[in-house]
What does this fold into?
Amino acid sequence: DGLNVLAALVSASRDGARDIRCPLVATPHPGEWRRLAEALSIDGDPVDPEKRPDAAAALARRLGCVVVLKGSDTVVSDGLRSWTNATGNASLATGGTGDVLAGVVGGIVAQFVRPGRSGDGDMSLFDAARIAVRLHGLAADRWRDLHGDAGLSPEELVACLPDALRAERERAARRGRGAFGGARR
It folds into this structure.
C-alpha cells in the first residue's frame, strides 16, 4: 500500500515535490505502476512485454530510484539500465508474494549495499534488486516443481528461499564467481 500512498502524495503535491531521489527500490505491480505513472504524467505500458522495460525505466528516471516492475518477466531498472528476469512463474500471482520480494530486497540491501560508497565489493541497489528478483523467482520455480502452478502461500515461498540461495551460490561457484555473481576475491 505504500506505493498507493506515494501516488496520492505525488498527486496532492502543491510545490511540485515529486522526486524521491534517495536510495530506494520500489516494487510496483502493473496497477501500482499505472497509479504512480498517472500521478507523475508518465506514459507507458507496464503489461506489454516489449514495452515493460521502457515503462520501468521511465518511472525509475522520474523518481530517481530503482524500480522493480513485477509481473511476468519482472523488469528491474535504475533508469539507465534495465534487466528482465527469467525466473518465476504464475504461482507468484498470489497476495503476499510481493511482500516476500520486498523482504528479500531489503535483506540483500541491508547486507551488501552501502549508500554513497562505491568501493570494491560494494553492491549497487540495481544489482541488489536483480539478485533479489532472481532468488524470489527461483524459490517460486522450486515450489512449482514440487506442487504445481497454483496455491503458493507467502510462507511456502519463504521456506523455498534457502534452497534457491544455495543453488544460486553453487551456480556462481561453478562459473568462478562470488556468492552473488561478483568476481571472487
About this structure: The beta strands are 25-26, 66-69, 75-77, 82-84. The chain has a mean pLDDT of 88. The chain is about 50% helix and 5% strand.
